[in-house]
Structure prediction request, 242 residues.
Amino acid sequence: MEKLHLGLDIGSVSVNTVIMNGDLQVLEEHYTRLKGQPFQTVQKVLEEILQRIPAERFETVSCTGIGGKPLSELLGANFVNEIIAQAKAAQRLYPQVRTIIDIGGEDSKLILLEEEQGHLKIGDFSMNTLCAAGTGSFLDQQASRLGFTIEEFGELSLKSKTPPRIAGRCSVFAKSDMIHLQQIATPDYDIVAGLCFAMARNFKSNVGKGKDFPKPVILQGGVAANLGMRKAFREVLEVSDG
Prediction:
């Protein structure tokens, strides 16, 4: 019977689970919100998997993410630093990529890859500060304030032709700008587009800190699913789909 590999990425907002075969082809992938209960949620996810697949079929179990270290110790599993995990994944799936942008629920990262003797390696990386601005949780909060789900938020922003300028470096200033825009009857789609562009500009200046973003660029993390953020990054970084 073919051996399998189980991977767990425990972030601040969700646990992402992947099951691969011996050729490292993805057989299953699952996204589960933690809702403030990381270990209880992971336990439920693992119980569901083990009801279907016997534990002895898993040749390896590996953990990454902000909660990966303590979980790996509980499970006796491998622990992989998330920056290394993201870089290795990009190298395997998209070997042409040179810049990785990762925006999760509560942090964001920039990883720059460079080629050395025919192999890719991490040339540089940087992360955001502890401020909420520039993260997926900030987008979730603002979507909720405006009465939209985060999925509606991303699609709505695509309607905007002229996104207004919103402060992106501080969540407090961003909220103030949003309130002002609402008071002057700015359409919701312009406000949400303005927020997306504010986050993209904030990432470029605050996390990028003057660094070049070699192309091709890949966007990872939960925010990568947001259509408005993808459009904003394409325009701010002057890159195209490919």
Notes: The chain has a mean pLDDT of 89. The chain has eight helices and nine strands. Residues 20 and 26 are 4 Å apart (CA to CA).
